[in-house]
């Protein structure tokens, strides 16, 4: 565990509100007791439950959203989540979040994203690079010596999520917002939300537009069996997909020949019973076949995990040695949505510490 903790890591599939600290969730919940906003007895068992079904997970998200949707809390959670990832030596984080409107506190999708960016700016305990750099500026890892540097350093880039509950217009609004927010580190679009609702055709115009405008796209794909949608998603050729749990033979062939990188979230898939047991998880086969893969947490708060634990879980379950874990982590650089300068900096950094691993 110590070793996995110390290894530099790349996180590409983390939902902001799903990565909330337990202590913060509890504090926010307690703050609402007696205010008539939520009935604690109705949600307590879901908060405390370990193996939540997909439906229960989304119930929990509804609760989290009630608790977190004001600007101050969004800023706080962003800060804490980044501090937490940095503390376990995540050196590049792509954080995704669904821009939300909350009229009761004057929140628009734009002001929500601004609150996230405020959170990024407010971090003082860690060196954070979140704004694309100009040509001649120093890179995060080359600007100070790797050895003897005690402060953690982390690149953070943002993805804006389209929720499957949203309309085509709302999805387009999110894409336009992402384009506007590019100077503040927004690099792409994610499609997520309850996989049992919504229709692929609704999001397609927005996703196409995002791609035409040069945003990267990643899709939650195959969380539930849905043959037609999975095929449509693979035909779209996103730059990455998340999960890929319920693919059929024909989908596997398409995925493997397309070489679309897969964001693998082991604990999430097992806890939500999306995959029946770890020994039949598709990570094993894809890893053996050298398909592009990246280990991710999905929702470290909701699933009580960390990227360190995900690496340990993969190592224990599929017999990966230290060198293999290091290479898995290093390979993830190539699947980031970062620009070439950031990738180069990360490659150099991994090279500089490779001997230790
Ligand atoms: P947020 O976008 O920062 O509010 O993060 C939580 C949201 O991410 C949830 O409400 C879902 O829309 C999405 N999400 C988190 N985990 C999953 C998942 O496993 N599948 C699909 N969507 C998810
Ligand atoms: Zn996810």
From TrEMBL:
Q: Name one GO biological process term.
A: nucleotide metabolic process
Sample GO molecular function, one term: adenosine deaminase activity
Q: State its cofactor.
A: Zn(2+)
The UniProt catalytic activity note for this protein reads: N(6)-methyl-AMP + H2O + H(+) = IMP + methylamine
SUPFAM superfamilies in the record, alphabetically? Metallo-dependent hydrolases
Its keywords, alphabetically, are: Hydrolase, Metal-binding, Nucleotide metabolism, Zinc
Q: Where is the Adenosine deaminase domain?
A: 8-348
Gene3D superfamilies (UniProt xref): Metal-dependent hydrolases
Asked whether the UniProt record includes rRNA processing among its keywords, one would answer no
Report if keyword Zinc is assigned: yes
Q: Which family does it belong to?
A: Belongs to the metallo-dependent hydrolases superfamily. Adenosine and AMP deaminases family.
The identity of this protein, by name, is Adenosine deaminase domain-containing protein
Q: Which organism is it from?
A: Phaseolus angularis
List the top taxonomic levels of the source: Eukaryota, Viridiplantae, Streptophyta, Embryophyta, Tracheophyta
């Amino acid at each position: 565990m110590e070793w996995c903790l110390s290894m530099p890591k790349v996180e590409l599939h983390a939902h902001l509100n799903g990565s909330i600290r337990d202590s913060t969730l509890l504090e926010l919940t307690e703050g609402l007791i007696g205010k008539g906003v939520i009935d604690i007895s109705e949600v307590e068992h879901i908060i405390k439950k370990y193996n939540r079904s997909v439906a229960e997970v989304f119930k929990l998200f509804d609760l989290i959203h009630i608790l977190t949707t004001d600007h101050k809390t969004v800023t706080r959670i962003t800060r804490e989540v980044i501090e937490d990832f940095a503390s376990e030596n995540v050196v590049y984080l792509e954080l995704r979040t669904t821009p939300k409107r909350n009229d009761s506190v004057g929140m628009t999708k734009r002001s929500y994203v601004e609150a996230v960016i405020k959170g990024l700016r407010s971090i003082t305990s860690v060196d954070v690079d979140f704004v694309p750099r100009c040509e001649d500026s120093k890179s995060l890892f080359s600007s100070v010596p790797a050895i003897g540097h005690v402060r953690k350093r982390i690149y953070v880039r943002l993805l804006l999520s389209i929720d499957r509950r949203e309309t085509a217009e709302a999805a387009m609004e999110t894409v336009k917002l992402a384009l506007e927010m590019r100077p503040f580190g927004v690099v792409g679009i994610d499609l997520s939300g309850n996989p049992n609702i919504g229709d692929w055709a609704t999001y397609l115009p927005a996703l196409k537009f995002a791609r035409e405008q040069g945003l990267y796209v990643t899709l939650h794909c195959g969380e539930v069996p849905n043959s037609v949608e999975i095929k449509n998603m693979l035909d779209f050729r996103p730059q990455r997909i998340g999960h890929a749990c319920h693919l059929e033979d024909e989908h596997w062939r398409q995925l493997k020949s397309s070489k679309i990188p897969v964001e693998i979230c082991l604990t999430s898939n097992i806890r939500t019973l999306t995959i029946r047991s770890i020994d039949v998880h598709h990570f094993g086969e894809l890893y053996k076949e050298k398909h592009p893969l990246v280990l991710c947490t999905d929702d470290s708060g909701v699933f009580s995990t960390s990227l360190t634990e995900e690496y340990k879980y993969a190592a224990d379950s599929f017999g990966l040695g230290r060198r293999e874990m290091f290479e898995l982590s290093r390979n993830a650089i190539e699947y980031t949505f970062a620009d070439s300068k950031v990738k180069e900096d990360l490659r150099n950094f991994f090279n500089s510490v490779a001997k230790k691993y």
